[in-house]
Design goal:
- The chain has helices at residues 22-26, 44-57, 65-78, 122-127, 150-161, 204-215, 227-231, 262-277; strands spanning 2-5, 8-11, 29-37, 40-41, 84-91, 109-116, 129-135, 166-171, 174-178, 182-187, 190-193, 220-222, 235-240, 244-251, 254-255.
- With 279 residues, it is α+β, with helices and mostly antiparallel strands.
- The chain has 2 domains: 2-116, 2-Layer Sandwich (D-amino Acid Aminotransferase, Chain A, domain 1); 122-277, D-amino Acid Aminotransferase, subunit A, domain 2 (D-amino Acid Aminotransferase, Chain A, domain 2).
- Helix 6 packs across helix 8.
Amino acid sequence: MMVYLNGELIDEQDAHISFDDRGFLFADGVYEVIHIYARHFFEWDRHMARLRRSITGIDLPDIDRTALTKGAEALLEQFNGEEGVLYLEITRGVQPRTHSFPSRDVPPTILMWIRPHQSFSDRMIGDGVSVITVPDDRWAKVWIKTIGLLPNVLAKEKAHKMGVFDAVFVRDGMVTEATSANILIVRQGVLQTAPVTNYILPGITREVVLEIARDQGIPTLLEPFSVEDMYAADEVFLTGTTTEVLPVTRVDGHMIGKEAGPMAVFLLRELRQKANSVS
């Protein structure tokens, strides 16, 4: 497999990163994950806009996005599949370990690679998944898509140990998001999700799904909701780059429905149609 590392396309076996890289030492970096449908990057411009916000959020020097785009396109040419996922990571670069930033002439480390992606099976989507709720003990700048994901990793592992798909973060009684996805509920035909704040990552798929809903005349509400609201919802589902639209049918053991709800199924179909129709 080929990877893009600091301006070059090289074999993954030849890709090496210094142990002095600040991404390794401090999780001092940001990332993006971009879905590839029908051999094209889905919502590339939105992902780049979010990447720019994350870069600004950690005071990282700006990067050459034209070169980044060309590098991603070169990787895509090497990719054999129709559907995949591009991973992009940028760190503050290499410097002997010290907490303060390196001087501005230290170049960032830029790494990209593509992996094949297989969407969830129709059976899994139809049955829906189970999740648990956990306290949201993450830092107060969740809107930055940082590589420092240890709280998310620990929450996801807790969910796996309990035999469920994912964990949903709760802060002061209100639902924020899942470990790697946004979360939405449906109540009496209204699609509801918490508004983007510093405690919620502005998901690209979430944004697209809300646009699809509005275009289809589905009422949408950007307001926080409680755990009890989620338990009582007609539908619950996750949205994310690799998650797409994934129905949730059990939360903390509470049944939400015996199968995927009609709105989640509809929005997933519309999302995939939109993604695969873009040339």
